Amino acid sequence: MICYNHNEIQAVAVCKNCFKAICKECTISDDNGFACSEKCHEEIVVYQSMIEKSKTMYGVKPGRAPVMTILLLVAGFPFLCFGAFSLVNGDWIGLFTLVMGIIFLVIGTISYINMKKTGIRS
Ligand SMILES: [Zn+2]
Ligand SMILES: [Zn+2]
User: Fold this and answer.
1) Which of 8, 35, 9, 30 is CA-nearest to residue 20?
2) Ligand 2 center to 1 CA (angstroms)
3) Do 47 and 72 share a structural domain?
4) 3-state DSSP of the chain
5) Model pTM?
6) Which ligand has its closest atom nearest to the C-alpha of 9?
């Protein structure tokens, strides 16, 4: 692989943005990876910060309070109890409430397990 700027120099890296082969002289490198130019470097930084932001949004970042998980678990129990109570009293609307409670608890439990998994990595 030859550098796209220098015909006689062996490339040592590939630009993360435009995938051109680049030699040591042309490479701009930092924590985000290699870039062939200042322009590409900027784009990589923007792209990288977008990934970081989306990670934060989905609660993957450690240390974030899993509000949805707690909400689902807390809301699930009353639904479950109320539904079961209604069913026992012969009210079939209770079945709907019971199912809602079960769904809440199942989703809550799954996201709780996921949270534990990602927590170990941090
Ligand atoms: Zn580039
Ligand atoms: Zn070069």
Assistant:
1) 35
2) 11
3) no
4) CECCCCCCCECCEECCCCCCEECCCCCEEECCEEECCHHHHHHHHHHHHHHHHHHHHCCCCCCCCCHHHHHHHHHHHHHHHHHHHHHHCCCCHHHHHHHHHHHHHHHHHHHHHHHHHHHHHC
5) 0.46
6) 2
pLDDT at 78: 92
End position of a domain, from candidates 22, 39, 57 = 57
**Rounded CA Rg of the chain:** 26
| Ligand 2 center–CA 44 separation, angstroms | 19
What confidence tier does 17 reach under pLDDT thresholds 50, 70, 90? very high
Residue matched to tokens 């079945």: 95
pLDDT, one tens digit per residue, over 25-64 is 999 998 888 999 999 999 999 988 888 888 777 655 555 5
pLDDT tens digit sequence for 26-35 = 999 988 889 9
Distance 37 CA to ligand 2 centre (A): 10
Same structural domain, 71 and 115: yes
Indicate if 76 and 108 belong to the same structural domain: yes
